[in-house]
What we know:
Chain A is built from 11 helices and 14 strands. Chain A is an alpha+beta fold. Chain A has 2 domains: about 1-175, Uridine Diphospho-n-acetylenolpyruvylglucosamine Reductase, domain 3 (2-Layer Sandwich); about 175-285, Enolase-like, domain 1, CATH 3.30.390.50. The two termini of chain A are about 35 Å apart. Chain B is globular. Chain B contains 20 helices and 32 strands. In chain B, the strands form 7 sheets. Chain B has a 7-stranded mixed sheet with strand order 5-9-3-18-15-16-17. In chain B, strands 12-11-13-21-20-19-14 form a 7-stranded mixed sheet. Chain B is α+β, with helices and mostly antiparallel strands and about 775 residues long. In chain B, helix 11 (about 405-420) packs parallel to helix 19 (about 745-755), helix 15 runs parallel beside helix 16 (about 555-580) and helix 18 packs across helix 19. Chain B folds into 4 domains: about 1-25 and about 445-480 and about 635-780, Aldehyde Oxidoreductase, domain 4 (2-Layer Sandwich), CATH 3.30.365; about 60-165 and about 240-325, Aldehyde oxidase/xanthine dehydrogenase, a/b hammerhead (Aldehyde Oxidoreductase, domain 3), CATH 3.90.1170.50; about 165-230 and about 330-425, Aldehyde Oxidoreductase, domain 4; about 490-630, Aldehyde Oxidoreductase, domain 4 (2-Layer Sandwich), CATH 3.30.365. Helices cover about 25% and strands about 25% of the residues of chain B. The interface between A and B is medium-sized, with 22 and 26 residues.
Amino acid sequence: MRDFEYEAPMSLDDAVALLSGNPAAAKPLAGGTDLIDHIRTRRLEPDLVVDVKKIPDLNVLELGDDGLRLGAAVPCYRIYGDPQIAAAYSAVADSCRIIGGTQIQSRASVGGNLCNSGPAADSTPSLIALAARVVIAGPGGRREVAAEDFCTGPGQNVLESGELVVEIVFPARPAVGGSHYRRFIPRNEMDIAVVGVGAAVELDESGQSFVSARIALAAVAPTPLYVEAAGAALAGQPVSDEAIAAAAAAAREAATPIDDMRGTVEFRKHISGVLTERVIREAVARARGEETGYRIGQ
Amino acid sequence: MATVEDRQFRVEPFPGGTPGNQRLVEEGRLPDYDVVGTRPIRHDGTDKVTGRARYGADIKLSGLLQGYVLRSPHAHARIVSIDTSRAAEVPGVHAVCTNADMPSADHRAGDLGEGMVDWYHLNQNVLANDKVLYTGHAVAAVAADSVHIAEEAARLIEVEYEVLPPVLDVREARGADAPVLNDDVRTDRQPAGETGDTPTNVAKHFHYEKGDVDAGFAAAELVIEREFTTETVHQGYIEPHTATAFWSPDGKITVWTSTQGSFMIRMQVAELLDVAISKVKVVPMEIGGGFGGKIAVYLQPVAAVLSRLSGRPVKLNMDRSNVFDATGPTPGSYMKVKIGVDAEGKITAGEAELLFEAGAFPGSPINPGCMCVFACYDVPNGRIDGYDICVNKPRSNAYRAPGSTHVALATETIVDEICEAQGICPVEFRLKNAVKEGDERVDGVTYPPVGMWETIKAVELSDHWQSPLEGPNRGRGIASGFWFNFGGNSVVAATVNEDGTVSLIEGSTDIGGTRASVAMQLAEILGIAAEDVTPTVVDTDSIGHTDVTGGSRTCHATGLAAIKAAEDIQAQLRQRAAMLWDVESEQVEYGDGATLTGPEGKTISFQEISGKLTQTGGPVVGRGSVNADKHGGAFGTHIADVEVDPDTGKVQVLRYTVVQDVGTAIHPSYVEGQMQGGAAQGIGWALNEEYHYGDDGRLHNASFLDYRIPTCYDLPDIETIIVEVPNPGHPFGVRGVGEVPIVPPPAAMANAIFRATGVRMRSLPMSPPKMLHELLASDG
């Protein structure tokens, strides 16, 4: 592997200073499960790697009345390991349970997954569905962007030089709400999404109608894709096969995949609709507190 | 004598196994052994499960340098020049080598035990100096103080390439206007023995014919002809290739490596470096899987050359992408097969045209493919043409029953279509057409006693076959397969210790539990416990020439050597007892319970006499050396239950049973492990495994992320039914087990998928995008 320097600052200011001091050749490191691999394969060639795991601000994991704060370096296992967070923000917990195996989940972070900005990232559709906002710190101070606006292309995002993600903040969940993420993979585990779908729904008190819904797709466009039309197809509608089919059609329509070794255009568009239906049904079941048949790998 | 159909059979649990481990038992014919057929804990088990076993990359030596191999970024290019001067100047670099640092090679054939090799082609594969023929083809190597320095330096090597168009498909590669990979290759036509006179990618053409094929098809009521394709797949062993070498100033070369055959590595290193075999010592390390892919050399000669240049020991390890890019694989193929049957469902004729990828250099398993395509059935009239065709992919290598899995997909799918068309139960069809003793294969071989019929009988009697499969989108398929197995050269030496135990040394590297299965055969003869035998795999200076652990030969042939060594010990102990009792050795018997008996009721146990050896003429060493030629071919039949998601095309394996004739199971757990492992690999091959190439010939998925072998989540607990039709060529009846189980799975899965969906898949892998495409097409 190519030679590089390593720093592990203890404060956000120090991290920003290190990243700003050598912006072109410095890279932040959280779990490192993507970054180290990219350095090994020479996709990235940083001279300086800044380990952000020792910065307290990036390790916050707080569930409060006004929502969830998720530090950018918090490893996946802490999210599904907290029963309250896993219940309230179950789409993110779903994502975290299927990113790699146990070892990877002990290192890899949702923040890192977002910053790697892969189109097939498993946690980003969940962030978008749950209306998360991304808190960014840099030489110019702090700013926030919506999760759906963060990624700008494969491996590309809105971070300016010297900036890093501090945390991801989620609004409080509605009283009757449910969320879910699942992906299609050729195998049943340890794989990368051919299509991924995250959905969050809010139902009325009776649980019979959609109040609102947010749906996002992975691996069908250059970036994780927020499909506003799919949510709009559900909002105000009764929970019905017709409404869910309309949302699925919107998702299928929004998908602009490519043919590659993981799937064809035909396959990915079709699966976008199939998974959207399945994910909405699961989110609805969760909102209603029903037993669901979902298990990892389906 | 009763015909086979009159014999009475039952399927029952195999003692000592899990509930899914069963066997076929013929009434009144149960084997009677003390050690054979039991399940002792393997001798190397503790080291393996505690991580203490030393694999190839675990070797550490004083002054060890680390190496890095520079590989071609192009699929097909002529090397114009290589300039290593900048690499050599990097601090910490001790040696840089290219093909120019190896002796030149000429066109002569070498036999590696599971395939032939041309020494010039192997020389070019190890380090190219003329052309690169696939992405990842090695062109130069560096040895340095660390692997990172070696890699940085290797990147400073300047290679000028003249890029050429690649050809990746066998049908294109045999066309007249295809780019020719090797201008020294001419078509070798067998068995005619003719050689073509123009450069070509078609390295070999095998032709076999039996009976009157046209008359056979004319007599058929139903003829089905289909085309099939399979993609290039890799053996997928978990341990990457590794080699460490030290070239001593006195000219002796020591190589530490994980390999299926240390003597084959010795031969190849000696040949490629132009030294005597006695100058090369190969120390086999533990091996993390081979499946046929760890026989040919890659790194070993390069590490030796780097050692000669640096004066230090040098280690070379591949990473996973190197393994996919440059080792393995087993060929992709195109196959056209035709079978005719009469009104009663009896086969009247078969015809096959088989095109296998050789990869960069000639040497695909096309001939075994030709010999296996109709091997399960009594085919009275047959014609087979097989072609070995060079394409811009890594040089193909053996993979578990090489060639047989491909052709079974074709034959067994057509057989299933015939059953469907004629309304015949697939079990009944196979019972009717199964080969038996005396039947002649299309390639002219006449079968000795074989167990094809018995495997089908076991399927018929199995709980799996008799349990109905219910539910939508579900289907059950069966398929059969054949492999020859092999004998060959093996040597063991067995020393009797004073405490009544035996130290057994052998040259067969242990991949699938052969330390245990070979030791058990020696223990059975001597009447001692398997645990009282200590097996050790030794280096090439310490035992006689032993062929590869491959061809499913080790339990059979090295087992035979161990039996001979045990009999040698028995003979020597009879002499010692005779000496103690002052009688003739002919008056002493070595009997049951490891006891020697003489005249007048004299007895002495194996343990007692072991303690008296130093007083009766010195230690006893038993010797076993064989060139085994009575190996027994074997058949397997698999049952697959699948469910296909109609909305995604994803195939889930619900239940899977492997039925196989193994001759005799020495250690049933390792036999069952081989059967399950082979099925797991075959299911992976069926569903998702494939090499993805770009149009430029670059391999896109050289990692386990996008080369999808099954994980434990993807497979059910694979059930086994061991069938034991003894091989008359082995005292206990061993046939060999490791290869047959990879043959039926793709066909069994395809047949199950058809019954679940009504869609016939004739192209591997049956991955979700391809499956869904067919499902959508069949809907509309």
